[in-house]
Amino acid sequence: MKPEFISIKEAMKKGKGGVAVRGWVHRERGSNALKFIVLRDSSEVIQCVFEKKDFEKQWNEIDKLQIEASIKVWGTIKGDKRAPSGYEIHAEKLEIVGKSEDFPINKDLNEELLGDRRHLWIRSRKMTSILKIRDTVLSALRDHWHKKGFYEYHSPSILGMQAEGGATLFKVDYFGKPLYLAQTWQLHAEPGIFSLEKIFTIQPSFRAEKSKTSRHLTEFWHAEMEAAWENFEYLQDDAEEAIKEIVAKVLDKNKEELKILERDVKKFEPVLKKSFPRLTYDEVLKILDDKAKMKISWGKDLRTIEEDKLSNLYDTPIIVTRYPKVVKAFYMKEDPKNPKVVLGFDMIAPEGYGEIVGASEREENIDKLKKNLKAQGEDPSKYEFYFDTRKYGSVPHGGYGMGVERVISWICGLDNIKDTMPFPRTMTRYSP
Ligand code: 4AD
Ligand code: MG
How many CB atoms are closer than 10 A to CB 210? Predict the structure, then answer.
């Protein structure tokens, strides 16, 4: 009986005897009598050896097989120290499923050309490894919140108002009306806590970011939570737990992928073991002044270079609390002890990967919300539905948003956030 198809990884686990595998030609080289094909599937790569004497009729076709052709191979697997993955399949039968000619990806392509050929580049071992880690990160987040009794809840992506500042809004022509793509789920999540109390989402957010940096996308996946009755400390604890659980799950499930990406996993030990430092904005100004000779005048937001400097002073993410009210969003709750600052925090990733979480308790006072909106030049009348959440049984509540791609970029140790997604969107990249 012919063996059933199994993944290359399963075949390697089996280690000996007859196997059937299928996938794509990752590399090929040949001689008069032999053809070596490194076969790739989603699980692994393995070298398959074809001997001319066994394939007289098909030899012409085998000889011409090129990178990325899809094939099915039946043969005998055995351990072989010389083979790239430690195993080799001696082929006995071959079926060519789809030919491939001159696959247009090679080592010499620059970032721009790789971007144009993204639909083909995602087959690379690098991208496959990142996409697997992405899957782990998303499932770790869902597990984390479900374990704590949160419900997954969704908000619309087409909205009539801003939440995170007008400068980064994308306009949508909605049957002639000017509407916007959502920057966050938040304003439509807060009403949801009166139904479900603890909710989360993982969905795209949109920002018209003009900055061409290695950490900004125009469409990013936003993991957001909102919780009734909980305070500022709860939000910090939850974000820290979520990050620790993501890291632990990736280290457990994606050892091979991290190796392919050449990620130094020792860097994650302190992240799992230590408590993340919790510093106030005021303390950060002092630390940056003392340790980095960076003077920031009070009331200015931390810039990328300042966040990077700070992150280099620690080996875990850092939680920075109580920013000046003037630099933060209109919905952040004033600190009752100091109305100049808000009960909000940013979590800054290690190794210069920037802000991975933005959070706050929510302001409950409608007059203060209106005042903050007006100060930003917004028309409060668009927000009546939002003020209703404060009119009918308002409760203390808060939440945060985590940039999924920022987290993946850090965990994978990438140079650019674009590689965290199959088809990234930035100011200059919107195709394919
Ligand atoms: O700090 P932000 O703007 O916070 C909010 O949107 C809140 N409404 C979240 C909430 O409380 N529900 O964004 C949250 C996070 C940032 O910390 C960052 O990690 C990520 O979203 N982010 C981006 N990631 C990639 N590209 C961009 N252009 C991003 N803008 C924000
Ligand atoms: Mg922020």
Answer: 10
CB of 217 shorter than 6 A to ligand 1: yes
- If you measure from the C-alpha of residue 402 to the centroid of ligand 2, how many angstroms do you get, rounded to a whole number? 9
Pocket lining: 209 vs ligand 1, CB cutoff 6 Å: yes
Print the SS3 string covering 354-404: CEEEEEEEECCCHHHHHHHHHHCCCCHHHHHHHHHHHHCCCCCEEEEEEEH
Question: Which of 403, 316, 314, 303 minimizes the C-alpha distance to 358?
Answer: 403
**CATH label of the domain that carries residue 34:** 2.40.50.140
Is residue 110 one of the residues assigned to a domain? no
Determine if ligand 1 sits within 6 Å of the CB of residue 317.
no
N residues, the chain: 432
Question: 328 CB under 6 A from ligand 1?
Answer: no
Over the chain (432 residues), the average pLDDT of each successive run of 10 is 89 97 97 95 97 97 96 96 89 98 92 95 97 98 98 98 94 97 98 98 96 92 98 98 98 98 98 98 98 96 96 98 97 97 98 97 98 95 97 98 98 97 96 96
DSSP string, 139-151: HHHHHHHHHTT-E
Ligand 1 in contact with 224 (CB < 6 A)? yes
Name the residue with tokens 């030899």.
Answer: 59
Torsions phi, psi for 117 (to 5 deg): -105, 30
Domain that holds residue 331: 115-420
Index of the ligand 1 atom closest to the CA of residue 354: 19
CA of 83 to the centre of ligand 1 (A): 45
User: For position 309, which CATH number holds?
Assistant: 3.30.930.10
Kindly report the protein residue whose alpha carbon is nearest to atom 23 of ligand 1: 403
Q: Is residue 86 part of a domain?
A: yes
